[in-house]
Structures are given as structure tokens and as C-alpha cells.
Design brief:
About 75% of the residues lie in helices and about 0% in strands. It contains six helices and no strands.
């Protein structure tokens, strides 16, 4: 798959899904939604909402880089950013519903969530390291 198209599409999908979560965030603020408010952490859901927006923008920026400098275009890099783009917000999202994905301990679900959180950081850092490394020859031109 073309990495530019993948990143452009997935970035747009994240920008689309983020306002859907933002709409859900409005429910507990309504008089009829008070029962939901007691079950969720609104600040962590807001962090998820913003994280998906920012990572969607990051993918659009990466798509621009890959289209402008073809030597940076790598399907592996794109897939790492797609995975990281969705998984990066998972600790906030899960913690918003009571599963602490920031702590590698507790139940198997909590440990799995924390493990995924670690993988997302590795994916994003690997992708950006590769992008920067492949950009070095561009500066020598």
C-alpha cells in the first residue's frame, strides 16, 4: 500500500473519530447524563480526544514529508505510525473507563493495556527515528 495514501486516510479517520468521542464527552454534562459522569474520567477522555486529533495531524505531516521527499516513504514507517496513532491514546481512553493502562501490574487486562501502551511508544519513536535518519541525505543536497 502507498504509505502517503495510508497516512492521509488514517489521519483523516482519526480526525473524524475524535469529534465522535467529543460528542460522547458531552453526554455526562447533560442533566439526563449524570449517571455516565460517575463512571468515566472526563479529563482522560478529553486527553484521548485531543491525542487522536494531534496524531491525525502528525500523520498528515508525515504524509507531506513522504510525498515531498520520496526517500522517506516507507510502508513500515507508515504502518508504525498508524498503529501508534490509535494505540497512543489507548492508555487515556482505558483509564477514562477505570482501567489504569499506565501501570504494568494488576489484572491481566491492565497489564495487557500497559504493554500495548509501551508498544505504541516504541512504534512512534521507531518511525520518527527512521524518518529523521532518511532525511539526513536531503540536507546534504
Amino acid at each position: 500500500m502507498d504509505p502517503v495514501a495510508l497516512l492521509a486516510f488514517n489521519g483523516g479517520l482519526q480526525v473524524f473519530v475524535s469529534p465522535l468521542l467529543g460528542t460522547f464527552i458531552l453526554v455526562p454534562l447533560q442533566p439526563w447524563g449524570k449517571r455516565v459522569a460517575a463512571r468515566v474520567n472526563m479529563k482522560l477522555l478529553l486527553a484521548t480526544h485531543l491525542d487522536w486529533l494531534m496524531l491525525g495531524f502528525m500523520q498528515w505531516g508525515t504524509a507531506f514529508m513522504m510525498s515531498r521527499w520520496p526517500e522517506t516513504a516507507s510502508p513500515w514507517t507508515a504502518w508504525l505510525l498508524v498503529f501508534g496513532g490509535w494505540a497512543n491514546a489507548s492508555p487515556h481512553l482505558l483509564s477514562g473507563f477505570g482501567i489504569s493502562a499506565f501501570v504494568l501490574g494488576g489484572s491481566w487486562g491492565q497489564r495487557a493495556a500497559a504493554g500495548i501502551a509501551g508498544l505504541r511508544a516504541a512504534a512512534i519513536l521507531s518511525a520518527w527515528s527512521r524518518l529523521h535518519f532518511t532525511m539526513l541525505p536531503v540536507f546534504r543536497r
